[in-house]
Amino acid sequence: METLRERKKRRTRESLLRAALELFTTQGYEHTTVDEIAEAVDVSQRTFFRYFAGKEDVAFAVQNITEAAFVAAVRARPPHEAPMKALRQAFLEGWDAIRETVESIVPVELYLRMYRTIESTPALLAAHLRRSAATEETLARVLAEREGVDVDTDPRPRLAVAVFAGVIRVTERQCYLREDFGPETLRTLSAAYLDQVGSALTGNWRAA
User: Fold this and answer.
1) Which of 3, 39, 137, 149 has the fewest CB atoms nearer than 10 Å to its CB?
2) What is the DSSP code string of 14-68?
């Protein structure tokens, strides 16, 4: 059970996180300082650094939580599922749980706005791609372990994850261009695009 001290620390961390994302999405990541984030929560800069290593750390804090939850969901999928199905089902069936996790920390609307900020900020986009590559490597190793293959000699785990990650990336970019961008739009498009992977990779695109 969470102690009073632990609860206060969690609330401070979450307050700093919400304040940071609000500032990043309204006035820009590069124009926001650590001092401004701390001031918004009425704490010192030293307190900020007790919880986060810096601006990049707080910018990706929620994303780190959702990615860890997704990796755990893939690891927990039934062993008989094929790799691509395990990735797909972990993403779609775990959607509500991941959304609830986000909502317990920040409003989903703010979380989605932060994605747009990441896309439009070169420093954040570069960090996002670097972090995504690390997560994809973790997923590849999870798939290799599930299938009993060596990830360093068998390319299939990394290929499967690369295809899946590419689909999600395309989906995110399409969603950001839509006026009705929201959690359900992202989920619906993700499912539709994942269903097209087979025909996109091996089918004939030309009209008969």
Assistant:
1) 3
2) HHHHHHHHHHHHHH-STT--HHHHHHHHT--HHHHHHH-SSHHHHHTHHHHHHHH
C-alpha to C-alpha distances, 42 to 35, 106, 202, nearest whole angstrom = 10, 18, 57
Instruction: Tell me the per-residue pLDDT of 61-72, one tens digit each, with 9 for 90 and over.
Output: 999 999 999 999
Dihedral sign, Cα of residue 51, residue 55, residue 57, residue 60: positive
Q: Distance (Å, rounded) from C-alpha 113 to C-alpha 118?
A: 9
Rounded (5°) CA angle 187-191-196: 150
Selection from 14-23, 173-182, 197-206 with the highest mean pLDDT: 14-23
**DSSP 8-state code for residue 80:** T
